[in-house]
Give the backbone structure.
Amino acid sequence: MHQIDQGPGQNDARRTRGRPKGSTSKRRESAPEASTPAPSGYHKPEAAAARIGLTPGTLAKWRCAGTGPAYIRIGGRILYKEADLDAFRDACRVIPGGSS
């Protein structure tokens, strides 16, 4: 059997099925939390992390693991209540020489 050379255009049709390469028509819009401020007494993950001395990535890992401070999820938005952050920070307090 002989193999027929289809030329360079054969793979081009496969590559452009659906959305063409480089197309931006189906990209997600930025999350609304990027421009919407958090309600009074609540913090977005970046501000919450700074408040307790962590990085936003650490908070994200803790959320996935089910640990860390309590948080609220409304839609795709994550918020931390200021009182919960303070309680979490205080619960992590270690008193050297204290009884267990």
User: Anything to note?
Assistant: The longest strand covers residues 77-81. Residues 38-94 form one domain. The chain has a mean pLDDT of 80.
